[in-house]
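Tokenised fold entry reproduced for absentees:

. . .
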Amino acid sequence: MRDPSGESPTKCQSDPRVTGQIKRARSNPTPSACPPVPHSVGHIAPGAPAAKIEVSDDVRPPACCRPPLPLSTLKQVFRSMFFSVFLWAVSVSALHAQKNLAGETEIRQDLDRLVTLGSVMMIAAHPDDENTALLAYFARGRHVRTAYLALTRGEGGQNLIGPEQGDELGIIRTQELLAARRIDGGEQFFTRAIDFGFSKTAEETLTKWPREKVLGDMVWNIRRFRPDLIVLRFSGTPRDGHGQHQVSAILGKEAFAAAADPSRFPDQLQWTKPWQAKRLLYNALAFTPEQEREVSRLAGRLTVDVGEYDPELGYSYEEIAGMSRSQHRSQGMGSAERKGSFKNYLVTIGGDKAVNDVFDGIDTSWNRLPGGAAVAESLNKARASFAPLHPDGILPQLTQARSLIAAIKDPEAARKLADLDETIALCAGLWLDASADKYAVTPGGSVKIAITALVREPVQVTLLGVDLTGAGPIADARPIAPAVLIRNQPSQNSHGVQFSEQQPYSQPYWLAQPKDGSLYSVPDPRDIGLPENPPVLQAHFHLKVAGTGIEIVRPVQHRYIDRVYGEQIRPLAVVPPVGLEIEKQALIFPDTKPRTIEVPVTANVANVSGDVRLETPPGWRVEPASRHFELAAAGEQSTAVFDVTPPSADARGELRAIASAGDHQISCGTEVIRYSHIPTQTLFPPAETAVVRSDVRTLARRIGYVTGPGDDVPAALRQLGIDVALLSAEDLVRGDFSHFDAIITGVRAWNTRAELRSNYQRLFDYVQNGGTMIVQYNVLEGGFFGGDPKLLEHIGPYPIKISRARVTVEDAPVKFPNPQNPLLRAPNEITARDFDGWVQERGLYFASEWDPRYQSVLESHDPGEQPLQGGMLYTRYGKGVYIFSAYSWFRQLPAGVPGAYRMFANMMSAAKVQ
């Protein structure tokens, strides 16, 4: 969803019942020398005046910021509050949200993690493939460092909560994974592979994913994370279903060995070292009785009961998993928080075989590192003597452990040192914050940063100074003057940071360059795997606590007050002076008439002016050559209007908007994605779109459309000059359909619109009286997949049985089993060429059985499979026409596929064709 205003509050909550959950969020720990070292931009000396926190009057916050607890859940609050204090303790978030007053559970969890050195990496293909219960068991129960490596960001799926698709959906699902990890305690990594949609076989997947590059990314993540155990979520066989699932396991097995081989991917060794995980495990699926029988026959399987209750947490790991999995809202993955025993099964498929426990033969104590025994002794003393009401009492043991850990030269010790510093800060009651006076800055612009340090326990703390890293040089660096913090009295300072003119925009790093087929282009290989960009600026607080020096890192973010909903935060972003909006859908020109193209220009800073122009392919004309804009305030918008005339012959190319503002040439928009369950995301999509000239004739002039989730088809149809009315629930109950040439139900509309299912007979009556009705694909529910299979009982006037059959190869041959069918004849003559240039797939959820009164119109199939004729069914019903079509028009029309427009125009015109 685009940001409708200049400001919007974001409170990143992972579970709505956990109201105290905005705690310390540690950054995704990055091994030394992996990402580029940030540039130091200056120091902030204690004693400077503090900047004020902005107060916002005119912003309505998202749902997550509203009064959170219904009465039915109040009885759970007390226990949830204890759980909340550790949900962010091992976090993967760009916000790195400052921890508020925390309690006993979080400190105990910190201490348990500090004394444990084991690590586990789970590997699968997509967001939601991970076993969240097993991740919670390892991270929360066994206290080992735990990660999920997803090969993709899930950009090839559908979006059930909004209009975002493709890259934007990948951003949402990335953040949903991070929200899930904040709950189950894991970290999150990726490869460069792009989810291109469903595939049936590993072979098909590997025709799109370059095998060695994806394998290399997996090896890089393993070498960087250094897991003791690698857990595969899938088997690598056809039983996994999705071809990308199969590949995640096939390459996972190869990566287990390749990561230890210095001859494989040797370029990585300038930043990391080979790593041999001790054991490769398969997490056998056992959700159905058949799967349980298969698992029972596996030799050497180990059983983990993730339904075991953890009294310290107040939940079982399976309950935590339900909360975690429910963060995948864009997929509709809300899950039960199951109570009681729930068995998981692990089988050794590589490395040393485990007999009694998954960590058999693996030392997860400090004894695995030279000098670690003394560290363990100090940390165990701290655990034993911890008093919840006096957490500062264990600082002597923690500071002693710090000096011992600092002497150990090992990446694992370095990570523990950063964790220990956070625990010391927690026990001392430290609040450390760096707040920018605004949420956006342009290259060459500046921000004012308010620095706050507060100690809330009776501990001697000295603020030695603050370093800022991440951007270019600042205008006025000053020396550091140490300051002793006084208990419960904030030490406040401020400083200005001037960004260089060359400062890059805050575009997600994997979207900064054009894609390489089904792989993202990442210029710096050290960035591969990171879930998101590092913060634009980070504040490194150097402190002396109880006589020992520590370093705490906090992101610089915008903190402001909403008068109704209180304190809110938003990540700092570097943005262009203006953003250009251009229609994302391909622009279709069905004839040679010119079209008016509007380009909204939005100011990201005050007092900006310049010109906008359009670049078109050869043969296209634009009038005028440019438009001038002058914008006085940030957020102000004007619209540049152009007339674009296509060539007479069929043509396709790219149209691009470019703004000149001072020394800046800008060819991108500024888009803000904001949902209640994830942090606000800012990205900069290219201000370009496809333009397509193709003859398309239609007899339909006015249609009614029942939208489904994430449905962009109405906007595509309007490009044909059709008046599209979006039908409301009230329209479906008692509206007059007689003035529509066609009524279309959108993707998944029968799954999600109860009023549609309740009024199907009114639609069939409309058809009987001479109208055209088109039903697009819907998901077959029921069985292992959950849901209600009866939702699709009345999808057609005669019986239709929907299946999960699909054609995933987008260029699979299409035949016409009934070539004289009217849908193939008029008003556009349809040929095989109309199925050229399709994207991602042919169709999904085809019919498997149908009444003989239907006639099949199209036939297709994936390589090596039987022909499928249930993707498009046609029947005359009374005076009108009913069409069922599970071909993926929702992808083809926005992509500007000419043949898809021609075929869909015939469908809408069906009742008018004699």
Q: What stands out?
A: The first helix runs from residue 77 to 87.
